[in-house]
Amino acid sequence: MGAGHSHDISGSAAGRHRWRLVVAFILVGGFFGVELVVGLISQSLALLSDAGHMAADVTTLGAALIATRLAAKPDSSGRRTYGRYRAEIFASGFAVLVMLGVSIYIAIEAISRIGNAPEIATGMVLVVGALGLVINIISMFLLRSGAKESLNLKGAYLEVLADTLGSVGVIVAGLMVSWTGNVWWDTGIALFIAIFVAFRALILAREVLRVLGQHAPAGMEPSEILQTLESVPGVVEVHDLHVWTLTSGMDVATAHLVAQPDNGPEVLSASADALKEKFGIAHATLQVESPDKKECTGADW
């Protein structure tokens, strides 16, 4: 396949669900200011922690929107041969940093309140917590389907999911402080929210690093791909197989196929079809080599 040959790798999973990000961004961004102001007035750490997490939601959703816009933008330099699709992965990595930052802030603020817990206006906490729960549930269902296809949307979905549980925590904190008069319920639930957010961030970080490390896509075994290519009629041997994820919904593969020269076109077509049908790999670069070659002309790594 020569340098002039190109494949259409447009239409990432994140791009198809961009409208969901837009609606969720408007909902979450609009509510963040309300929660922050009420959190400061009520002096509820649980509410402030949820506001901080919602700020992370706004940042994550905004970064995801920017990433999907960049991914869809054509490259005029000619140097980005895979386009800007990796912007989605970098946005997901940024979401991880924001989530961890919020967790650390909540933990530090909780420790600073030891022995100096303020009075909390539980009425305002309950009203805002309930409203936040509604906003987050709507946003969660908006992002849920796209999160199954896009790592970028998955990062945003996990943020909103964690914030939904955070809203539940805010309501519980408000109720418990109101019933018992003990403000430590507010601090304890805030710490629980911080731990949960950090845990979800680490899970997402693992997925981001797997993509950036060019590991085989989740749920895809290179040995199975190798066996599938070796079973293609006319293929004598397969080597130099590489498979990785460019961005969510875009898996890529390269391989050298040993086959008789007169079978080259048929082997290429059948192998490409097998990868697409069985593994969903629509972008594969395959090289056919003659069995009488003594050594591969490819790279030695």
Provide structural commentary.
By secondary structure, the chain is mainly alpha-helical. It folds into two domains: 13-212, Alpha-lytic protease prodomain-like, CATH 1.20.1510.10; 222-289, 2-Layer Sandwich (Alpha-Beta Plaits). It is 64% helix and 10% strand. Strands 1-2-3 form a three-stranded mixed sheet. Strand 2, helix 9 (264-279) and strand 3 (283-289) form a beta-alpha-beta unit. Helix 4 runs antiparallel to helix 7. The two termini are 21 Å apart. The relative contact order is 0.13. Residues 1-11 have low confidence and may be disordered. One of its GO terms (cellular component) is plasma membrane. One of its GO terms (molecular function) is zinc ion transmembrane transporter activity. InterPro entries: Cation_efflux, Cation_efflux_CTD, Cation_efflux_CTD_sf, Cation_efflux_TM, Cation_efflux_TMD_sf, CDF/SLC30A. The chain crosses the membrane at residues 21-45, 51-68, 89-108, 120-143, 155-177, 183-203. It is found in: Membrane.
Secondary structure topology:
Layout: H1 13-16, H2 18-42, H3 45-72, H4 87-112, H5 122-147, H6 151-180, H7 184-212, H8 222-230, E1 235-247, E2 250-259, H9 264-279, E3 283-289
Parallel strand pairs: 2-3
Antiparallel strand pairs: 1-2
Domain Cation efflux protein transmembrane: 21-212
Organism: Epidermidibacterium keratini
Family: Belongs to the cation diffusion facilitator (CDF) transporter (TC 2.A.4) family. SLC30A subfamily.
